[in-house]
Amino acid sequence: MKIELLTTFIEVSQTLHFRVAAENLFITQAAVSSRIKQLEDELGVLLFDRSHKRLKLTAEGHRLTKHANEMLIMWQKIKHDVGVTHGAKTQLFIGAMMSIWDILLQDWLQKIHRNLDDVQLYTHTFSPLELRKQVVSRLVDIAFMFEPPYMDNIAAEKISSVPLQLVSTDSAAQVDELENMVMVDYGESVNTQYMRDFGENASIRHNMSQPRVALNFILEAGGCSYLPKQMCFEHIRKNKLHLVAGAPQYSRDIYAIYLAKSNKLDLIKDALQLFPYLR
Questions:
Q1: What is the 3-state composition of the chain as percent helix, strand, coil, each rounded to the nearest 5?
Q2: In a domain, 109, yes or no
Q3: HTH lysR-type domain location, by residue (predicted)?
Q4: Contact at 8 Å (CB) between 175 and 181?
Q5: How far is CA 86 from the centre of its chain?
């Protein structure tokens, strides 16, 4: 199986769109379709449900996602170990939940690029359970999550506390009469606070895993959602979004986890120092 088939599959599984995946991979949409078809033929299963307007992963596609990520990471490590990777750069493998990439990590990657020019970055998206496994198995050097595990061999460092505020496309929205609420999954602690504060008024129209997806959705379709303060600042200035008066505010702590005895500990510390984090 060719590595580019897995790379293409991962990109399509994340974007759920052949055209967007093609743009991200700098290849044609026809090439993306051909690679996915070749991968499906080799495995003998359908990886995507194409019967609806929006592409969906099949059950087999979901199962492949985990293995594909692991195989790509292992391949990069193999290339490094046997000297196939060009140059003498140090590799840093970073994993995070999808929503945390949106909230926090984009600017941080740019800082690593500018300040640690001998570092080669590899980024991947995992569920919280998979992130822990990837760190323990040394496939990921640094992982970012909302609730860190309590394990003797894992170090956890709080790198940010993100304010969440309720915003709406309706300037007259009332906290006790919310319409078209889009709930973003920020972890159990925030979800529990929301249900406690809103009680019977906790009417949720849609549930989404990524704040960026929720933001784009309500800007297009109308509605309200709890979003990171820095993500909706510009939209509030332009009166596209409005703070809902009297709504409780939440915050979401984000942690970096890594092996306490990692052979890249100095590099990990240097990279984390580039966060404008709150302690």
A1: 45, 20, 30
A2: no
A3: 1-58
A4: no
A5: 28
Predicted confidence (pLDDT) per residue in 90-107, tens digit:
889 999 988 788 788 888
Phi first, then psi: give them for residue 81, nearest 5 degrees: -65, -35
pLDDT of the residue at 133:
85
Q: Which residues pair with 92 in a beta bridge?
A: 121
pTM: 0.65
Give domain status of residue 147, yes or no.
no
Q: Determine the distance from the C-alpha atom of residue 50 to the mean position of all C-alpha atoms in its chain, rounded to a whole number.
A: 24
Instruction: Please give the pLDDT value at position 278.
Output: 41
Higher pLDDT, 18 or 88: 18
* Domain encompassing residue 185: 161-251
Instruction: Answer yes or no: are the C-beta atoms of 101 and 125 closer than 8 Å.
Output: yes
**Average pLDDT of every residue of the chain:** 87
User: At 141, phi and psi to the nearest 5?
Assistant: -85, -45
User: Do 242 and 169 meet the contact criterion of CB atoms below 8 Å apart?
Assistant: yes
Q: Whole-angstrom Cα distance, residue 178 to residue 204?
A: 9
Count the domains in the chain: 2
Would the CA dihedral through 92, 111, 23, 55 be positive or negative? positive
